[in-house]
Structure formats: C-alpha cells, structure tokens
Design a protein that fits this description.
By secondary structure, the chain is mostly helical. It contains 8 helices and no strands.
Length: about 190
C-alpha cells in the first residue's frame, strides 16, 4: 500500500456511500456524529445550531461522497473540515444578521470567527491525538501536575513524560496557524 493511500475503512466507506448504501451513512454517523456536533457547538455555542450543522454535514456527505479526496487526508479529517467550514459559515451569517440589526462592524465578526476556528481546531487536535499524549496533557493542565508527577501517574520515565507534553503542545500550537491559513476544500456553505 502506498504512502498516500487512504485507510481501507475510508476507501470502503466512500464506495458504499457512492453506491447509496443507507447503512453506510448510519455507520459513518455513529462514528463521527459526536465529533461533528461537538465541533459545531464549539464554534457556534448553540445546541440547536450545532444540530443543524450536523444534519447539513451528513446530508452533504450523503449527497457528495465523491467530494472526499483521500489524498487530502482521512475521512475523519474531511468530515471535521466540512463541519468547521459549515459552522464558520453559519456563524458568519448569524453575526452579519446581528451586525446589520444593531449596526456592528465586520472586524468584530472576523475576530469572533478566528477565535471560534482556533478553539474548534484545538478541540479537534486534542480529541484526535494519541491517547498517551492526551493523557499527559490532561494531567499537566487540568490536574495541575508537573512533568515528574505526570510521569509517576502514567508510569513512564520523566524524559518520556516531557517528550509527550512537548509533542502534545507542539500539536496544539498548530491550531492557531492551520485554522487561519485560509485553505479549505469546498463543502456545505462554501461559495466556490
């Protein structure tokens, strides 16, 4: 299997969706609905809007399974990117409407969209990172453990605990740059 080949599950899922297998959509939904809803909620801070984005994303996937390009990443990444794009699109629409009603500026809107994008990306990174890295970060930042305590709690060496923390933080640092780079594939709500 080549380096750029998508995982077998992703290829099969795309083929099943392209054939119109309703069971495939159900399986995809079971696997990614929590991710989609939590990411949309993180951007929109509204359960009803997150529910709507979830429906729109899975509707788009059902209607456009060939839009998934395995060379761009996993199906999980594609679904997360569609979610992000749709949630940001919806947030912009909501903020434009609110700004028009009360005369607000677009600068506040773009700042809010950027903050929401970075927060959603960071949330996605944390939920997607390997369990050992996530466990180290949770101990260090939520339970206020230093690297020595983290090492003891995880049963690893201090060097390993530092390595996991450093790598986890490096991954999180990409949330700010990648969420703002402006490159996104077309998806629900895009105007391409």
């Amino acid at each position: 299997m080549g380096k750029d080949a998508p995982p077998r599950w992703d290829r099969r899922m795309q083929q099943r969706l392209a054939r119109g297998e309703a069971a495939a959509l159900g399986e995809l939904y079971d696997r990614f609905a929590a991710l989609v809803h939590s990411q949309a909620h993180r951007v929109l801070d509204d359960d009803a809007a997150a529910d709507q984005v979830t429906r729109e994303v899975f509707g788009y996937v059902w209607e456009n399974p060939d839009a998934y390009d395995p060379r761009q990443g996993s199906m999980r990444f594609w679904v997360a990117r569609l979610t992000h794009d749709q949630a940001v699109h919806r947030l912009r629409e909501q903020e434009r409407t609110a700004a028009a009603e009360c005369g607000g500026g677009t600068e506040d809107l773009e700042q809010k969209v950027r903050r929401a994008s970075v927060a959603a990306r960071a949330d996605y990174i944390v939920t997607s990172m390997p369990a050992p890295l996530r466990a180290a970060l949770e101990l260090a930042y939520f339970q206020r453990r230093d690297y020595r305590q983290t090492a003891a709690d995880l049963g690893v060496t201090e060097d390993e605990a530092r390595r996991r923390l450093r790598l986890g933080l490096q991954l999180l640092a990409t949330a700010n740059t990648r969420a703002l780079d402006g490159s996104s594939p077309p998806g629900p709500g895009s105007r391409r």
